[in-house]
Amino acid sequence: MAEQANGLRLFNTLQGQVEPFAPLDPDGKRVNMYVCGPTVYDDAHLGHARCYITWDVLYRFLTFLGYDVKYVRNVTDVDDKILNRAKERGETPAELAERNYQSFTEDMAALNVLPPDEEPRATQYIRQMLDGIQVLIAKGAAYATPDGSVYFRVAAKPDYGKLKYATQDTALLKKHLDDLKAGARVEVEEGKESPLDFALWKAVPLEDPNGWESPWPPTQETSKGWGRPGWHMECSAMNHAVFGEQIDIHAGGADLIFPHHENEIAQSEAWTGQQPFSKYWLHNGFVNVSGEKMSKSLGNFSTIKKVLARYDANTIRYFLLTNHYRMPVDFNDEALQAAENWVDKTFGKLKKLNITREELNKVLFKTAAEVKALEQGLNLEDSHFSEFLHLMEVDLNTAQGLAILNRTFTKMQLANAQGDYARAMELFQRVVNMMNVLGFSFESLFEGVSLPAAEIHSLYAELAGHQTNSAEQAPETMLEEIVTMRREAKASKNWAQADAIRKQLTDIGLQILDNKDGTTTVEKDGLEIVRV
After folding, report:
1. Alpha-carbon span 308 to 316, nearest angstrom
2. Which of 353, 320, 356 has its CA nearest to residue 338?
3. Fold of 2-298
4. 274-312: per-residue pLDDT in tens?
């Protein structure tokens, strides 16, 4: 495992640089990975797709490298956005949260994102949040206000800001924070010591049905405290309950660096006294839609469901992985159509190999160690798999990894065309393993070709000069007759009609090919439908 630890390098936001990956586990085998999950007040959007596909690839790759990964992704099911949306729609917050959680789960499955090992919900950990807050108060790192709210005292953590500014220099951090306070535009809430202090617990009226009892009653009003947890405290409490005092990887979108992840670090380290709370902090880049930052106000807040209605999961994944995960990515139809063309071509060629599900499972490797052993045994240096692994080890360089995949795919096609089927299958093995590490779905390889039956029937009726009963003839049979009509047009030198038939077939997604042996085939997505 030592060799693997030295090989994998990840960009740690906490240090502002790429660092060798070495887990906290003394044996170097166990990895605890936490990813900030959704706040389930609405349908999941493109930012969620970018985030969870990114960390899905990391999860797959860590597992492939031989690490024993415990992957946890939380669900925020109590939040002002949830409460407001539920009120708008006339349903309970629990009903809204559950419905949107189920919708999110469906979206992740549709994107071929592997489920986490655990998916804790915030409302299940209120007791742990209250316990943690009490510890922070006892240590002087937090204080209750007269209305029953509790705030974290940022001044109690001299290294506050170390994630945002990627430095451990406390003097430099103090200067940054002084500038931040000077530029703060929010009014200091009653009882709050500093504009940088953040809520661990927010008091609400006793009659609010969406609250929990707390040890901090409003002064001179009641003996009973009532409120809801602060967003930042939720993740710290769930991490503490599931993993303990420290974790290896904490990941999420770049928009969470400050204040959410910064506040998580401050309260978690003050709570336990252990540093670091997370050894590695990883963040994926922002999402733009047609050149503009994704925003509801701009009307480009596209949902995953809307994009999946136009493009399949492999297309979305390929498009995202051609960009480095830390860079901004621009969703636009031109780029997605280019990705769709790659998927159609690649999977069409793979489908021509007629691989069964059982045969595919036999060639999929479980670990990188199996790959390296096999590579040495076959001496197949130009399969490029080792180069692919090396690129992935350098901060998940999926863009260059895809270039290696494409190079190996081209060699596979050449070997197949030359009749060297044994070599073609060896290269096929490498291709599908690269794709598997990147999280592509192979389900389309085992699905039948969907033909545009209505369009074929309409074209056949037009060419035959009369209406036909589509129930009486299969689309394949009508295609054979259309090909025969085109052949007759060519024989009579009616080139215009022959070309028109070719164009009409192309317009409905079919390709017509004249072969050297005198036969003609019709293909869809690279697969032969009929031969006449």
Report:
1. 8
2. 320
3. Rossmann fold (3.40.50)
4. 999 999 999 999 998 877 766 655 455 689 999 999 999
